[in-house]
Amino acid sequence: MTFKTGHVGLNVSDLDASTSFYVKVFGFDIVGESREEGRRFALLGLDGTLVLTLWEQSEGKFDTGNPGLHHLSFEVPDIEAVHRAEAAIRETGVTVFHDGVVPHGEGASSGGVFFEDPDGIRLEIYAATGADERPAPTPGAPTCGFF
């Protein structure tokens, strides 16, 4: 049996804010939605492929102390795309970790930008090469560990 990741579904506290954030940062299209009270959701995709679903079903902020999602990572073709994403992320005012683009670990060329969405869900946008401009922020541990 072969498995491939399909879409990812996230609970959010404010559908409008989260939809706006993900469209701005990732360039997603809204491929479906419901604005019906009590059943609000947005289906986000790229090039006709569903990537992310947002469900307005929660309150408060993401709690990293509970079992579940650690972080959500997206690969882009090159480090220039990471830098473009970083600029869009900074415009939103959310938390950016490590003060920008960093490698995944000491000596690694792969890396990216690590940040939170409006609900505090930890995210990463990375490229396979070109992130070795700065030292890794956490010696002996992967940057995507958010240590």
Structure explained in plain terms:
It is a single chain. The chain has 147 residues and is of the alpha/beta class. It is 18% helix and 33% strand. It has two helices and eight strands, in the order βαββββαβββ. The protein has helices spanning 15-26, 79-92, and strands spanning 8-12, 29-34, 41-46, 49-56, 72-75, 96-103, 111-116, 122-127. The strands form two sheets. Strands 1-4-3-2 form a four-stranded mixed sheet, covered by helices on one side. A four-stranded mixed sheet has the order 5-8-7-6, with helices on one face. Strand 7 and strand 8 (122-127) form a beta hairpin. The mean pLDDT is 96. This is VOC family protein. Keywords: Metal-binding. Residues 4-128 form the VOC domain. It comes from Microtetraspora fusca.
Number of helices: 2
Helicity level, as a percent range?
10-25%
- Rough shape? globular
Amino- and carboxy-terminal Cα gap: 35 Å
Q: Report the sheet with the most strands, covering strand number, pairing sense and barrel closure.
A: 4 strands, mixed
- How would you write the strand order of the largest sheet? 1-4-3-2
The SSE string, one letter per element, is EHEEEEHEEE
Tell me the strand percentage band. 25-35%
- What number is the mean pLDDT? 96
Content-based structural category: alpha/beta
Show unreliable segments: none
